[in-house]
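Recap from last week: sequence in, structure out.
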Amino acid sequence: MTFEPVLRIVQVGFATTIQDHGREGLAHLGVPTAGAVDRRAHDLMNRLVGNLPDSATIETMGALILEVLRPVVVARSTDASRHTLVAGDQFRLDAPAGGVWAYLAVRGGIDVPPVLGSRSTDTLGGVGPATLHSDDVLSVGADPGSELIADHAPAREPADLRVRIWDGPQHDWFVGGRQALVTRPWRVTNELSRVGVRLETGEFARSTRSHPQMSSIGLVPGAIQITPAGEPIVMLANHPTTGGYPVIAVVDPDDLAHLVQQPPGSTISFRRA
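Predicted structure tokens:
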């Protein structure tokens, strides 16, 4: 079924893509999962408009301006609320105050052809919907027929803002193991992407154990790799399927959404899970 265009991109903003839950189960073929960087915010916006959690949304770092071409119900994480819009309306999508990533859910879900079972744009491998541009028009799927049971659902910050971490497969390659991450706060650098969050350089002394030359290993979201220069990099939704740096720790999945929304210059602390 072909649906009529519903939205036109007036200004494409920064790092704007279409995302859902990604392509799970294809890492052994070298295909990254991709999908929403902050799945919690993505799912919340879908819930506000009555969509299934895996419905495609628009993800952006901000400055995205859209024009409505026909009546539509949307939810945006800028203010975590639902809006009913009519033809001719324009609205802007920016990250929430103190955040990095924003999501727009449209009732029915963004309708683009799925590739390998997903509508997500893989910015690392170039799989999925094409990069969005100004003047592009977007369609939505069929109305889900669900009830709209809430119109506002702000995300709650955790009571403890320290990010929980678990031992990584190479945690014993470093003196103190993952404790080397716990003993101090870390500053988020300005090198943000869907692939990972890079933290400032730290002191990571190698243990006295002899380690063989490291081969590439599989990666998961939240894996914290330590570069030869001592920079921790936290893998996000569009991380490569394998990597060659040692993984000292892995961020708890429930805390990863909090970490990805920390803007450059902010500090985060880790604690043992």
